[in-house]
């Protein structure tokens, strides 16, 4: 069974298969041969990029990775996931904002790791459009956080990525 994520405010099955940072070359080769979309940590993505089908290979970044290594290939990367080691670590917000507004990234931008319902508004304001919540979070309850906000453009190149508060009073 696939994990559930929030994407564009809706609950969907996660079709991306994560590859562990310590995966063996044999495991990675088998995963590539299986043909499903893979989410690889940056070092593995860089090492195996030539063997990967571009639209089936996403990149998992940690804040220490920075963006320089992926910038030349942004148009070919369908998913960039940014890992939050703890919910108080704000570096992922900065990476997302830079990807969207400065570098014009238009693919899926997913927050993963220690991601809580209370962060969704601010994560989205920085450019995230998908969220893999921490295991103790209930995705159905987190989805309710979107009821208070509506999608609205947030500047930058390409499609809008941001929320504005829903002004209606019920």
Structural account:
The structure is a single chain. The chain has five helices and ten strands. It is an alpha/beta fold. The chain has one domain: Aldolase class I (TIM Barrel, Alpha-Beta Barrel). The strands form two sheets. Strands 2-1-8-7-6-5-4-3 form an eight-stranded mixed beta sheet. A two-stranded antiparallel ribbon has the order 9-10. It is globular and about 45 Å long. The protein starts with a strand and ends in a 5-residue tail after the last strand.
What is this structure, in a nutshell?
The protein has 170 residues and is an alpha/beta fold. Helix content is 24%, strand content 23%.
CATH T-level fold name: TIM Barrel
The DSSP helix count reads: 5
Radius of gyration, in angstroms, nearest whole number: 16 Å
Number of strands: 10
Estimated structural class: alpha/beta
* C-alpha end-to-end distance: 38 Å
Poorly predicted regions = 155-170
Order of helices and strands: EEEHEHEEHEHEHEE
Question: What is the makeup of the main sheet?
Answer: 8 strands, mixed
CATH class descriptor name: Alpha Beta
CATH superfamily: Aldolase class I
Which strand order do you get reading across the main beta sheet? Answer: 2-1-8-7-6-5-4-3
